[in-house]
Amino acid sequence: MPAVERTGPVHTPAAHEEHTVHHGCTRLRGVAAVLASASLLLSAACAADDGGSTGTGGSPTPPASSASAPAASPSPSADLPPAKGSVEVVSTLTKDLDSPWGLAPLPGGDLLVASRDEATITRIDGTSGRKTELGTVPGVSPAGEGGLLGLAVAPTYGADHLVYAYFTTESDNRVARLQYDESKPAGQQLGAPDTILRGIPKGTVHNGGRIAFGPDRMLYAGTGETGDTGLAQDEKSLAGKILRMTPDGEPVHGNPSADSVVYSWGHRNVQGLAWDAEKRLWASEFGQDTWDELNLIEPGKNYGWPEVEGEKGEPGYVDPVAVWKTSEASPSGIAYAKGSIWMASLRGERLWRIPLSGSADKEPLAAPQAFLEGTYGRLRTVAAAGGGRLWLVTSNTDGRGTPKPGDDRILLLKVR
């Protein structure tokens, strides 16, 4: 039986995403360098403010000078985040959401949220939390870990009102764009899906689903290997990959192969995408029985699955920047704010902070730090809200959590 998202401390070898609880510490690369520079970290200047993409296809990104791939190894930032951060829950924006998955901030501060199982897109007022259903995306076939997943707002949204969605059909996973017409009645505001990429393999599990526009204004998608591990190493398959395409779904100049949207491979199930202030791409990924991962993504690189899980130092494969015991994470969405990557965890039921140095050989800057452990249950999606704030979406109504009254909800956090 193929793997499923981890739900609790039950070890089922055939269901690779359920594990016994481990009590090991989070591991990270470059610990010695971190300890040697501890005094520097403690005296660092104020944390860098929000930068890069929201990581969830949120507010339109600024124009880039070209459509080439973002640089992967920039010089370090002048201002470094503190070794230890903080999280304050400012408010609960809205409650009673059904299987929320994708989240996309709109210009002006409102949010779009996708219901995985209902296949609906709902607008959430960013101040009052009032919900307005835009409509249902036709052709979505929810089952297992599939359904209506990631959302992204086009960088040209102010002119064309295009919203992008990643979803599962009866035959595949695909990416489509829909026009959002606010002049129509509620429930009828979504135009017909215009599919820009089809043929992404689907499965009961490991459908990936996160999409986001990068600083280069290109669309990125994280996919899963559907439980068929060999697809991750098959460069001709769209499964187990990070994809990079134009807003029309075409390959981009600077991709590893000129005629392919494949950007990186060897992934098990990519669930989060975000860019930091240096325009470097980060991705969170489900491991199997041992290590979950945060990876710094470079074009044309192989991230190892299924040959490697976690840090192995094997030639030809890129090691993750940080890894977690599977009981501590089951990572989903990520976002960048205040000089750190923030990672939502499903089975781990906590929000991880990973402070960054801005230098590829010195990441992360300090040990990852956990917040909100067990407070709100499973955490699915996180998005930058500007001004050192984050939107955080819970995931307790997806069939694997234990819903409480009011679940699921969107929280507003202040972080540093």
TrEMBL record:
Residues 64-83 have a biased composition (Low complexity). InterPro entries: 6-blade_b-propeller_TolB-like, Glc/Sorbosone_DH, Quinoprot_gluc/sorb_DH_b-prop. Signal peptide: none annotated. This is PQQ-dependent sugar dehydrogenase. Residues 97-400 form the Glucose/Sorbosone dehydrogenase domain. Pfam families: GSDH. PANTHER family: HEDGEHOG-INTERACTING PROTEIN, HIPL1 PROTEIN. Residues 1-22, 50-84 are annotated as: Disordered.
